[in-house]
Amino acid sequence: MYLIEPIFLEGLVVKGFGRGSKQLGYPTANFSENAIESLPKTLRNGVYFGFANLDAENKIYRMVANLGYCPFFQNTQRSFETHILHDFPTDFYGSLLKVAIIDYIREERNFTSIDCLILQIENDIKLANVKLDKYQLSAQIYQKFNIES
Ligand SMILES: Cc1cc2nc3c(=O)[nH]c(=O)nc-3n(C[C@H](O)[C@H](O)[C@H](O)COP(=O)(O)O)c2cc1C
Predict the structure, then answer these.
(1) 3-state SS string for the chain
(2) Ligand 1 mean position, distance from CA 20 (Å)
(3) Ligand 1: which atom is nearest the Cα of residue 16?
(4) Whole-angstrom distance between the N-terminal and C-terminal Cα of the chain?
(5) Tag placement on the chain: N or C end, fewer CB within 10 Å?
(6) Would you say 112 and 106 are in contact if contact means Cβ atoms under 8 Å apart?
(7) CA of 66 to the centre of ligand 1 (A)
(8) 22 has pLDDT over 70
(9) Does residue 1 carry a pLDDT above 70?
(10) In this model, does residue 149 exceed pLDDT 80?
(11) How far is the CA of 116 from the centre of ligand 1 (A)?
(12) Which of 28, 104, 120 for mutating ligand 1's site (highest number of atoms within 8 Å of CB)?
């Protein structure tokens, strides 16, 4: 099952708390607050997967993301944290990030330990890859990312 249509979000990458790379081993790119406010109000908090494009490069990466308050870390601000499934040599604060949200995986939740959260993220990535293997990239996604199909 996929969302009826992909949901697109774009904005500059701002600094989060930096725990994604340091504590989890899964660096996440955070969107500015106004980018998050542009999301449909009905989009529920939780873990999503889809595609990402950085700085108008001619590349489409896969991504997993968490929307919400990260109950494990008890954030007070809602965030959309994107983990791009690619090893980047440096961070990319200030870059223009575009994402296409394809579908929902699960609710965000609390965990008894950071290792349990890490295991869950590994499973989220496996599931996202299985689903995206079967997903046909649409012309709309190429268009939004400004990439020739
Ligand atoms: C795929 C994925 C799923 C996540 N699921 C949860 C979750 O269920 N609960 C939670 O508290 N944090 C979850 N996180 C962690 C946060 O979204 C975020 O990465 C973490 O708080 C570090 O953010 P920071 O780098 O801004 O400090 C998840 C992260 C990813 C990439």
Answers:
(1) CCCCCCEEEEEEEECCCCHHHHHHCCCCEEECHHHHHCCCCCCCCEEEEEEEEECCCCCCEEEEEEEECCCCCCCCCCEEEEEECCCCCCCCCCCEEEEEEEEEEECCCCCCCHHHHHHHHHHHHHHHHHHHHCCCCCHHHHHHCCCCC
(2) 7
(3) 26
(4) 24
(5) N
(6) no
(7) 6
(8) yes
(9) no
(10) no
(11) 12
(12) 28
Any idea which residues carry the catalytic annotation? 81
pTM to 2 decimal places: 0.96
In this predicted structure, what is the pLDDT of residue 3? 82
- Which atom of ligand 1 is nearest to 46's Cα? 8
- Nearest C-alpha to atom 28 of ligand 1 is from which residue? 66
| Domains contained in the chain, CATH given | 7-144 (2.40.30.30)
Task: Report the nearest atom of ligand 1 relative to the CA of 71.
Answer: 11
Question: How far apart are alpha carbons 30 and 147 in whole angstroms?
Answer: 23
